[in-house]
Each structure stands twice: as structure tokens, then as C-alpha cells.
Amino acid sequence: MKIKIGCHVSIAGGIFNAPKNAAELGCETFQIFTRSPQGGPVPALTDEAVGLFKAGMQQHGFTDFVIHAPYIINFGSGKPQTFHGSISIIRAELERGSLLGAKYVMFHPGSFKDLGPEEGMKQVKAGLQEVLGGYKGTTELLIEISAGAGQVVGDTFEELAELVAVLKKYHGFGGICYDTQHAFASGYDIRTQLAVTDTFKKFEEVIGLEYFRMSHVNDSKVEFASHKDRHEHLGDGHIGVKGFGEFIQHLSQFKTKEENQFMPLILETEHDKVQTDIEILKKLRNKS
Asked: How far, in Å, CA of 245 to CA of 190, rounded?
């Protein structure tokens, strides 16, 4: 498996600035929001904006990037406005991604706290089927594993597998975005070779490795199985550089079905040291 390394970058001043921002940080691929993560007005993707973005991609040598959906999504909400708004936003992000040429849109499904796990899961499945029903775009949808705070959806491989089982028949469904910090907080360890082997074995048995499509690579400010979402720079947290080395070594051994298939590894750490994090990942990738 070919691995490409990047980070989340800003679109301040216009989405067309993202490729330049990513290149300056040493990215090989990158992640953006196409709108404010907390809601609000949605910047129009005019023909001019799309053209400038694609020109920037070419100028800086990028062939691909990914999109993170806004944080306001909640497919498990008891409020109809929030539920139907989530459907609308995710479908729109897929369409926007297709216009721009994004490989993936990944999202957090939300929380069961309003409806409870049983009714909540039914609603999440129904909402996601509505998102993908009739979709014909090129950008694929990924579900991101959650850290397990509160009653979040998708913090276990079993819950993710439930969603995959329903969605895998739809055009446009890609699989899972594995966030190392979220998974670590939810009880999936990667600190040693044995832990990585065990975690990937569980993923294969419960979900299937063909649905492991990309990873957010973040160290953890919080301890193992603490069920909190707290990113840290690589080597400064509870996972440690050795663990990321084992993780990348395992990923590099994935068999690919397509000749040009690759695995995006995206950092979501603060920009004060994100270039150092990128350099660490590149060194670990090159060693593997």
C-alpha cells in the first residue's frame, strides 16, 4: 500500500488557497473543510473558485485531497431539523467534493443521547441511506470512528460494522476513517507490534480491512480507553512514536486491488508543530 502524508489546512481567504497552504507545510495530500465546521453561511463553489482550486492543485503537484464534514452533524438527534439538516449537509458535501475532485468526505455520525441506542441506530441508518440514495458523484463517504465520549455513534468496531452492512451496497460509500486518537480512547491499542496486530485483526474480523480507507494520525493527550477526544503531537502523548511506527509498518503491508490505490494519513494536530509531525510520519513511512 502506498502511503501519502498530509494534514488539515485552512481555506481562509478562499478555498483555492488550500493547495498552497498544504504545499508550504510539506504535505503530499491534505484535508479541508469546505464550509465553517460550526455552521453558518456556506461559501459558493463558483466556476471561478473551482477552477482556481484545481489550478492550485496542479501548480503544487497534488493529485488528491479529502474533506472533513462540519461538526454540527447528528444523525441520532431527536430534533427533526437537526436530523434532516445532517442529511442535507452530508449530501451537499459529497456533491461539493465531486465538483472539486475530493477523494473522500468523512464525518462523525452524532449521538444516541436523544433516542437511545436502538432507535438512534435505526435513524442513523435511515438518514445515511437517504444521503446516498441516488448519489452519482465521484467523492466517497467515510464514517470516522469516534472517541466514545457520552453516547456517540460509532465508537466501537461493532457499531461501525452495523452501518457498513447497510451502506456497502450504495454507490459512493467508501468505508471507515480510522482516527488513531479516537480509537485509542475507545479501547483499540496501537502502542506495540502485538497491539497493532490485535487491533487490525479485530477490524478485519468485525468490519473487513477492505473498508479501512484512510487514517487521521494523532497522538493522545488522554490515557488508553479514557473515552475523550483530545489530540496531541506525535510522541508527546500516550501512544508514542514507536506505536505510530508499528501502525505505519502494518498499513504498508496492506494488499491493494488497484494499481494506484493509496492510503491518506492526515494529521489533525495544532499547526505550531504540525510540520514536525509530518516529518516524523515521513521518516516512519520511509523506514517501513
From this structure: 9
Task: Give the number of domains in the chain.
Answer: 1
User: How many C-alpha atoms does 248 have within 13 Å on its Cβ side?
Assistant: 25
Maximal CA-CA distance, the chain: 51
Going by C-alpha positions, the residue among 66, 2, 68, 77 that lies closest to residue 33 is 68
In angstroms, rounded to a whole number, what is the distance separating the alpha carbons of residues 271 and 284?
A: 20
Q: Could you tell me the sign of the dihedral formed by the alpha carbons of 203, 142, 109, 226, in that order?
A: positive
pTM over 0.70: yes
Domain range for 207 is 2-287
Residue whose C-alpha cell is 482550486:
53
Could you tell me the CA-to-CA distances from 273 to 10, 27, 67, 209 in Å, in that order? 15, 14, 22, 31
Q: What CA–CA distances, in Å, run from 287 to 25, 86, 179?
A: 21, 41, 22
Pairing mode, if any, of strands 104-107 and 66-68?
A: parallel
Summarised one tens digit per residue, pLDDT across range 183-234 is 999 999 999 999 999 999 999 999 999 999 999 999 999 999 999 999 999 9
Distances (CA, A) of 232 to 87, 195, 222, 266, 269: 31, 20, 9, 13, 6
pLDDT in tens, 19-73: 999 999 999 999 999 999 998 889 999 999 999 999 999 999 999 999 999 999 9
Q: How far is CA 158 from CA 129, 154, 205, 270, in A?
A: 19, 8, 10, 31
Residue 1 has pLDDT above 90, yes or no: no
Read off the CATH number of the domain in which 184 is found.
3.20.20.150
